Amino acid sequence: MNLSEAYTAGPLSLPWIERLIRFDTTSFQSNLGLIETVRDYLQTHGLSSTLTYDPSGKKANLFATLPAADGTTQGGIVLSGHTDVVPVKGQTWDSDPFSPEIRDGKLFGRGTCDMKGFIGVALTLLPEMKAAKLKQPVHFAFSCDEELGCVGAPYMLADLKARGITASGCIVGEPTDMRVIVAHKGINAYRCRVHGHAAHSSLTPQGLNAIEYAARLICFIRDQADQFRADGPFDEAFDVPFTTLQTSIISGGNAINTIPANCEFSFEYRNLPGVDTGPIIARIKDYAANTLLPRMKKEHANANIDFELLASAPTFDASEQAAITQLVRALTHDQAIRKVAYGTEAGLFQALGIPSVVCGPGSIEQAHKANEYVTLEQLSQCESFMRKLIQSLAQAS
Ligand SMILES: [Zn+2]
Q1: Of 104, 126, 153, 226, which is most buried, counting CB atoms within 10 Å of its CB?
Q2: Are strands 138-143 and 77-82 parallel, antiparallel or unpaired?
Q3: pLDDT, tens digit, for every residue of 266-289?
Q4: Could you give the residue numbers annotated as active site?
Q5: Minimal CA–CA distance to 193: which of 85, 298, 104, 310?
Q6: Full-prediction pTM beyond 0.90?
Q7: DSSP 166
């Protein structure tokens, strides 16, 4: 089936999803083309958008409110999605990742499940929302730089806070197979630079080997990970039921016969809700400053170890009593308690006092991979979920 045939037979939201996917919004690139297209569309429906930019000015978040029929703009439900996607570099795709294709009932393309499908459904159903005489407003919150560790949304949320905008609930449409996710871990990512001193490799007493000390620190990080794995705390509702740490990137040295002056590595940890992040990084920094550095300084005065925070996003732990949790459970007929290791923006909305749940079309299994796809069935399911949501907002007082 080609796309135009699917448009008449398949989910109503396909044209919008296709339009969104054709913008290459890989996180390191501008997303302004997509954001401005969405802004202009919302404008034609009488909604004005607030754009909040990242420091480069090349990327923006968009927030817009469809007021209730009586003009109310406070309260209501936020529909949250990130507009950026992960890179396709190094992946082998069977079709152009930015030119969506339908094969075997699946829509292929970068961002189909993570997470332009959800955004496309929300935009497509805007006319139905307008026609429904809502008793509560619907807010659209489309962010940038989520894939860099939820870096973009904080600009939007700070603006909402400054303008006193509140909502009674938020649905983050990350891919969950349209099931309800009520908790996820936090994200904390750091870069560490170990500074030593270069010398000819035969003259080891004159140099300070940065790689060797970086290795010691990396082993210490691994020891912390092993301790969490062995001793907890545990939450068995999570797919990985303990806090994890790991080193993911490393580089250092420049020649086989030179003592490396520098080594740099990145590590991250994913903490369970209730596990304080402060003591984890404090232990790592303490080991660097008070165990490794004194030994390094004995070898060379140039010794140094510094840390840079790259990204942090809070944990998310929904209340079962929250109205949004009960509403989304009722609309999806899903009462299971599901908690996941991957992070989303739900923790950020929650921290702003907006109770949240994660529920969207497609599977996290297909996210970030070559041949990412969402099934047309999942998109139809998301559309009918969104229609039921509209109905309930039209009835709610
Ligand atoms: Zn995502």
Answers
A1: 153
A2: parallel
A3: 999 999 999 999 999 999 999 999
A4: 84, 146
A5: 310
A6: no
A7: -
